[in-house]
Design a protein that fits this description.
Blueprint: H1 14-42, H2 45-66, H3 69-79, H4 84-113, H5 118-143, H6 147-172, H7 175-200, H8 210-244, H9 247-263, H10 268-283, H11 287-324, H12 332-338, H13 342-357, H14 361-386, H15 388-421
Helix pairs in contact: 1-6, 1-10, 2-4, 2-5, 2-8, 2-9, 3-4, 3-5, 3-8, 3-10, 4-5, 5-7, 6-7, 8-9, 8-14, 8-15, 9-12, 10-13, 11-12, 11-13, 11-15, 12-15, 13-15, 14-15
Length: 422
């Protein structure tokens, strides 16, 4: 099917890739939140909270097992496309070994510490880890500026996922069958990635090369730290809510987090498209062009974030009640608070793209570390006293600190380097 498929001549331009990436996000987020709306009406809140709790833990472990190689692969592929398949093969070799070991260890630990969560964690981690195993393919497509393949794979699977999970949820009204459906879809994801890559780019040579792997992990280590800290900043509050309160409060709080993630589709295409482009700008010393695009994009997304915050604080109660039911009325206020962080979240994503393109991963880690320490510290104080409202305000404060730090990091780089070259 794809072997003789000829892409239009301008399909890999930045504009075309941005359009495709936006379509991908609309499909991905649209189907995900239709599914979420069905799950909230067909699963017990305790079951849904258990799933969110398990996925938060599994996602954190999965990002650790990522070792930062996805961002490394995008940049390596964009700057060295002739050897991109070699980079992909080596990254996959590292990832598969790490995921198998991590999956076994995580589930043993959960079985020993919290056996009641063990069946949910077994399936949730299988789903999450399999998706994580397929991410190098998506990074490879982005580095090669072939967003169209990512759209085919993710879009197709999301369209398949929606009716499958909805039917399972409606007829079973149980969590375990729903998680089994997600595991099945993630297996199809891996098969599709292998098939499309091998037919369009060449064979993937999986083999263990300790010396080469060590070099890759060393180069990707700053990305690993940044990704881990970033996910801790986004997810650790959910874990703490589950540990300090209960899974019902996890469901209430996580619904707000999910809605914030939903609107991230507006800026995620920028990362997909402009990380390879900005990497090329830095490699070719086109700093003035980079500075202009960065300031323009940051202004646009910050304004869009303010608009979304206003909408949520006006219509949030109606949105949550209509889509997720009266049982999630407790999610309204924390969601409205969480949306105050959206303008800063959007602008911070744009700044992070520039930092990664400019090889400033180590400094990014320091900024993230400060934000995470503030987040964890405030959550330990606020959650016992204020519950999920305290967790929401903590997210806002730590996001403002994170975004401010990223701008302090990248702006001097853009202006000082430019003046030196002039």
């Amino acid at each position: 099917m794809f072997k003789n498929f000829v892409l239009p001549r301008n399909i890999n331009s930045a504009r075309s890739n941005f359009t495709l990436a936006t379509v991908l996000q609309l499909v991905e987020k649209g189907t995900s939140y239709i599914i979420l709306a069905v799950l909230t009406r067909n699963l017990l809140k305790e079951d849904l909270g258990s799933m969110f709790y398990a996925l938060s833990i599994a996602s954190l472990v999965a990002v650790i097992l990522n070792f930062g190689t996805d961002t490394y692969l995008i940049r390596s592929t964009a700057t060295n496309p002739h050897n991109s398949l070699i980079h992909l093969s080596r990254t996959l070799s590292i990832r598969f070994i790490a995921i198998v070991i991590g999956f076994v260890l995580l589930n043993i630990v959960v079985w020993l510490i919290q056996p009641a969560l063990s069946p949910v964690m077994l399936l949730a981690s299988a789903y999450d880890f399999l998706e994580e195993a397929g991410h190098p393919f998506l990074s490879f497509f982005l580095g090669r500026k072939q967003v169209v393949y990512r759209l085919f794979i993710i879009g197709g699977l999301k369209i398949l996922t929606m009716p499958l999970i909805i039917l399972i949820a409606i007829f079973s009204r149980a969590l375990i069958p729903v998680l089994c459906g997600y595991v099945f879809i993630s297996l199809l994801f891996i098969v599709a990635c292998f098939w499309i890559t091998s037919r369009n780019f060449g064979a993937i040579d999986l083999k263990w090369e300790p010396r080469v792997s060590a070099e890759i992990l060393k180069a990707a280590f700053p990305f690993f730290l940044a990704n881990t800290l970033n996910l801790m900043h986004m997810r650790f509050d959910t874990i703490l809510v589950g540990a300090m309160l209960n899974v019902r409060e996890v469901a209430n709080y996580e619904l707000g987090i999910k809605l914030v993630e939903a609107v991230r589709f507006m800026v995620r295409p920028f990362n997909m498209v402009f990380l390879p482009v900005f990497s090329e700008y830095f490699a070719s010393h086109q700093i003035q062009k980079l500075r202009t695009r960065f300031l323009l994009l940051a202004s646009i997304v910050f304004t869009a974030g303010i608009f979304l915050t206003i909408l949520m604080n006006i219509f949030g109660a109606s949105i949550i009640t209509v889509f997720f039911g009266d049982d999630y009325h407790a999610s309204i206020l924390p969601t409205q608070i969480l949306f105050i962080s959206v303008p800063f979240l959007f602008a911070g994503i744009i700044a992070n793209i520039v930092a990664n393109a400019a090889h400033q991963e180590q400094k990014t880690v320091l900024v993230l570390l400060v934000a995470v320490l503030v987040n964890v510290g405030l959550n330990y104080i606020s959650i016992p006293q204020l519950g999920i409202i305290g967790a929401a305000w903590t997210t806002v404060v730590s996001q403002i600190i994170l975004t401010s730090g990223m701008f302090i990091l990248v702006l001097p780089r853009l202006f000082i380097v430019s003046s030196d070259q002039q």
